[in-house]
Amino acid sequence: MRLSRYFLPVLKENPAEAQIVSHRYMLRAGMIKQQSAGIYSWLPLGLRVLNRIQEIVHQEQVRAGHIPLLMPTLQPADLWRESGRYDDYGQEMLRIKDRQGREMLYGPTNEEMITDIFRAHVNSYKDLPLTLYHIQWKFRDEMRPRFGVMRGREFLMKDGYNFDVDRDAALHAYNRHMVSYLRTYERMGLTAIPMRAASGPIGGDNTHEFLVLAQTGESEVFYDDRVTALKLGSREVDYDDRAEVAGVCAEFTTLYARTDETHDAGLFEQIPEEHRKVGRGIEVGQIFYFGTKYSEAMGAVVTNDKGEKVPVEMGSHGIGVSRLLGAIIEANHDDKGIIWPEGVTPFPVGIVNLKQGDAAADAACASLEKALLAKGLEPLYDDRDERAGAKFATMDLVGLPWRITVGPRGLANGVVELTSRRTGVSEELTPEAAVERIAEIYAGR
Ligand SMILES: Nc1ncnc2c1ncn2[C@@H]1O[C@H](COP(=O)(O)OP(=O)(O)O)[C@@H](O)[C@H]1O
Ligand SMILES: [Mg+2]
Q: What are the domain boundaries of the chain?
């Protein structure tokens, strides 16, 4: 992509309405535009990151054996009357009437609808386990939409629902989600800590929230800081192996990590003082086992291996896809702008031409662009007729992890400069070597 032909409406000034850094940088880098309180357009750069995040979410869900589908944003009120939530949901639900006077709503979540799909098509344990998920826009008429995409009214969520024949199988689905979420966040360059959340009506250890540590987070968190060193890394996990999956979950949930809702001062005091930390976190996901709450209310029953009809065991599991952009920026920035982790960057690398119009510099940039494209790595090439300082400032703000700087002086020696956005360290190397290096960095992305 050439910047001269792109749509990247960068703002020079800090927008007054933005209170936190991620919101400020998303507006300044031309990623989003507010259209109404808590409702945003995704401009091209923002959309690229949003798409990248969705891709990772899909890949990790499919890896865990979960199956994508797509449910509509608009739902009939009657479905929600079956579960009793049409009245319970209150003011957060956006209620709409169509021209026939039928009551509809813009879905804030999809438990009822997925249960309706399930009961229409599945009636035997032989078709289980089954986990269906989608990535779809939600609407919640939040009292205080704020911090940009962090707390929107319209926001993109991955929500998945498991259907299992018994409690043990459903808890395995819960654990599978935990592991797949850990891998998802790690691929985005995030440390998201599973924290015990307030238990539902069933009680017990049935729900975890995933929190990214950040000063600007809305939740207060209490944790043993050794939990931040835990990594899934590249290890293979067999998602069908209940003991193995449960083992990984135990590894990540044994150290103390809780939000203020579940905090236990007595247990917290037992952590060695040097590891005892209080901070703030951003909730980027939540997993929940709720058993037969919806299946009983809505008549989603299956026949088990003894021929008995039983309500199906369920859970629901969400990832805040659009919120993740904010969380990633909160965790990865400096005073010049965003620093995208390689996993989610909108472009893998930027090319800065220091002397647009210089025949050698223009040709070198074009050939770098071509070589990168041939490797499936689309660069953002700043080919505008601008001062070098302005080009660097834009690249730093936009936050591509790598920049190749091309100028007549370097080219005279056969080199370009490769700079890491994170460390600021530059090295000179031939254009070919620069392309190879970028390809190595993104291998297996
Ligand atoms: N208003 C919102 N704006 C952006 N993301 C949201 C919003 N509400 C929830 N999310 C994201 O969706 C995920 C799943 O939602 P859920 O746990 O049902 O929401 P909540 O925690 O508000 O009850 C949350 O972990 C969060 O990351
Ligand atoms: Mg939640």
A: 9-71+110-338, 350-442
Residue 201 has pLDDT above 60, yes or no: no
Any ligand 1 atom below 6 A from CB of 103: no
Check for a shared fold between 9-71+110-338 and 350-442.
Answer: no
> What topology does CATH give the domain 9-71+110-338?
BirA Bifunctional Protein; domain 2 (3.30.930)
Whether 152 is in the pocket of ligand 1, judged by its Cβ within 6 Å, is yes
Q: Note the pLDDT tens digit of each residue in 273-309.
A: 999 999 999 999 999 999 999 999 999 999 999 999 9
Distance between CA atoms of 189 and 180, rounded to whole angstroms?
15
SS3 content of the chain, % helix, strand, coil (to 5): 40, 30, 35
Among 157, 158, 206, 321, which residue has the most ligand 1 atoms within 8 Å of its CB, making it the best to mutate?
A: 157
CB of 141 within 6 A of ligand 1: the answer is no
What's residue 319's pLDDT? 98
Task: Say if residue 199's pLDDT is above 70.
Answer: no
- Ligand 1 atom showing the smallest separation from residue 324 Cα: 27
284 lines ligand 1 (CB under 6 A): yes
350-442 carries CATH number 3.30.590.10? no
Buried b (16+ CB within 10 A) or exposed e, 305-338: eeeeebbbbbbbbbbbbbbbbbbbbbbbbeeebb
Two structure tokens written together for 96: 């709409």
283 CB near ligand 1 (under 6 Å) = yes
Q: Taking the model in full, what pTM does it have?
A: 0.97
